[in-house]
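[SOLVED] Need 3D model of a two-part complex

Original post:
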Amino acid sequence: MVRRILKSQAGTSIVSVIAAFVILMIGISMMTTAIMVSQNISNNSLKIRQLTEEALAAYYMGECAEESQEMNFTIQPAEGTQAAVYAQFKGIFTTYTYTTTSGTERFLLYHFAAEE
Amino acid sequence: MSGPKGKQINNKGAAMILVLCIMMVFLALSLSILLAASVMQGTARKAAVSERCKSAAFSYSEMVERQLVVGAEVISSMEADSVKSLFRTLIVDGGAAGVYDPEETADVPEKITLACGMEGESIGQTLNGYNIQMQVYWEGDGKEIENALNAAGSDPLEIEQAYRDIRLYVDVICVKASESYRVRSEYAVTVVGGVNGNPEWGFTLGGRY
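Solution:
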């Protein structure tokens, strides 16, 4: 009886169809997830581009918040070459900050200037 | 399953093979979509970093120019730790060997790398990893300078004047991780006069690019 049940192939086609269908579903869900994730990533990269462009426009239009500090600058040969000679001078270091209207994103730009 | 002539053809597993092939196609498509999106994001991030580097390098180059182009100064009145004095020392110490002669050789000149600091630290430590360094080299008629140096012997005034009419190139490079931006400034160097053994060194900006 048991041997006959085991040898019987009745219903095997429906099992294989179900198995194939499940595997196909896994593939489709994997593809859907990949599409959604890549859409998020490309949206994010568009946001970065937009932020950069807006920040640059604001920087050139003088609309960025700025914070300036007087700093001591030094210039000297990199290690191993004539380390005894060096130059030092004072300059102004400014950080320009652009913040989006929603206030969630910030973009920093760095600027150096000689003392007046 | 039987064939037209009653032969047994084993089709077991054909559906599974087909589904696995479709899966592979889906997998390849998914990976290529993800790759394209991440490349796009990487490019956008790089563009943002590059803009910051550009702004920092240009403004730093202009700041150095303001330190250099302040009119001709005699050596004795130059501050020992001024940028002008530093470049003069590098040029004179370099001797004829430090001069890149475009007529003589097509070799790339050996540039002197300078480290830039702010408040005793490297600039990168203050600027979230955006570091600034400079590379300097100069160009002139190597033979003429060598002859002038030989003729000058040990006369310091003549040695200084051997470097008149050379061109100084100052590259300001802003680096952040794998991104960098380079701004090159070209200066004409003049060494004139020699009252009481003190020639005047002057730098004139020829261009920035």
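Edit: Helices of chain A lie at 2-7, 12-60.
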